[in-house]
Design brief:
The chain is α+β, with helices and mostly antiparallel strands and 190 residues long. It has helices at residues 60-63, 69-87, 134-148, 162-166, 172-184, and strands at residues 12-14, 21-23, 28-29, 37-41, 48-53, 104-111, 114-119, 122-128, 152-157. The protein folds into 2 domains: 8-53, no CATH class; 96-184. Strand 4 (37-41) and strand 5 (48-53) form a beta hairpin. It binds zinc ion (ZN). Zinc ion is lined by residues 15, 17-18, 20, 42, 44-45, 47.
Length: 190
């Protein structure tokens, strides 16, 4: 797991395909995406290893210096939209319902502008959809794990959710199965 890892180069990594082990600093790096995402590959066999997610940008206070009135207003509107979005996102296991089932095969789905987490037909969580939502996928998966523990057997994305889940970032196709395997023991399809 990788989110906001400051000493990321020290992180211990191992390859799921060959026997290579080492620190993240000695992996083969992909190209930084949107200045936030960096994908890492095995130096021996080029298998996908992990994805580092860096904190976005510098503080808001910094960006506001020297802006015109109009630019400042645009920044403030963007911040307001960001806050409104964040307020609708899952942040705690307390926001999730109690579920009686013993084995939970959950689905990650997208219905119009919403991401839904479903157990069968029951929607247990929904929030506004995000583009390149793999980061949200990992966060939500972690919170589901915290709430329901080993009862969760999978969080499987539906076909129609994939466009927004992966976005323009190819390595996310490897990252999402990795999260499913590490958290829920779901085997990675060959
Ligand atoms: Zn390898």
């Amino acid at each position: 797991m990788t989110i906001f890892f400051e000493q990321w180069q020290e992180m211990e990594c191992s390859c799921g395909k060959c026997s290579w082990k080492g620190t993240a600093g000695t992996t083969t790096r992909g190209r930084m995406h949107r200045g936030i995402y960096l994908d890492l590959y095995c130096p021996e066999c080029t298998e996908f290893i992990d994805l580092i997610i860096f904190p976005a940008g510098e503080s808001c206070a910094h960006r506001k210096e020297g802006l015109t009135e109009e630019e400042l207003q645009a920044v403030q509107e963007a911040e307001k939209a960001e806050r409104e979005y964040a307020a609708q996102c899952l942040t705690s296991p307390d926001q999730l319902p109690e579920l009686a089932e013993t084995d939970l095969f959950l689905h990650w789905d997208q219905v119009q502008g919403e991401t839904q987490v479903r157990s069968g037909d029951t929607v247990i969580w929904s929030e506004p959809v995000a583009y390149e939502a793999f980061e949200r996928f990992e966060r939500i998966a972690l919170i589901l794990k915290e709430k329901y523990g080993a009862k969760v057997k999978d969080l499987a994305p539906t076909d129609r959710s994939l466009l927004f889940l992966y976005g323009d970032y190819y390595p996310s196709m490897f990252y999402v199965p990795k999260v499913r395997k590490e958290l829920f023991g779901c085997p990675i399809a060959a």
